[in-house]
Specification:
With 121 residues, the chain is mostly helical. The chain is built from four helices and three strands. A three-stranded antiparallel β-sheet has the order 1-2-3, with helices on one face. It is elongated.
């Protein structure tokens, strides 16, 4: 029978630890939480851009993030990180009522992709 030395033990522990580290995000949905947080952050930035747009121009906003970027209210266009390129946000603003709507197109599928009520009020 071969001896079981410390090097074999360390390599087995390291291998198991590596598998555990790779498996943890899958079990606890860490990536999905990160994507939801990034989506909400994007929507907050867009919300603030629309708010500035309407206050400075005193008109309603109905357009895209690209329109806000062209007019200087956003530094770049934003997309939902959940499914990748091309996932645009729905956005509009009513100057008279002060209502601003920014919604993720995946809101029905991912219920945590919603702006907090504290920002909207």
């Amino acid at each position: 029978m071969k001896k079981f030395n410390i090097y074999k033990l360390i390599s087995i522990i390291a291998f198991l630890l590596l598998i555990f580290i790779l498996a943890v995000p899958q079990f606890f949905n860490i990536d999905k939480k990160k994507n939801a947080e990034e989506c909400i952050k994007n929507m907050k930035i867009i919300y603030k851009g629309i708010e500035r747009y309407m206050n400075e121009r005193e008109i309603n906003f109905k357009g895209t993030a690209r329109d806000l970027m062209r007019t200087g209210y956003l530094k770049k266009t934003y997309e939902c990180p959940e499914n990748g390129v091309g996932d645009k946000y729905y956005m509009s603003g009513n100057y008279e009522t002060g209502e601003i709507i920014v919604k993720c197109q995946h809101e029905a599928k991912f219920t945590d992709h919603k702006l907090p009520e504290s920002l909207i009020e």
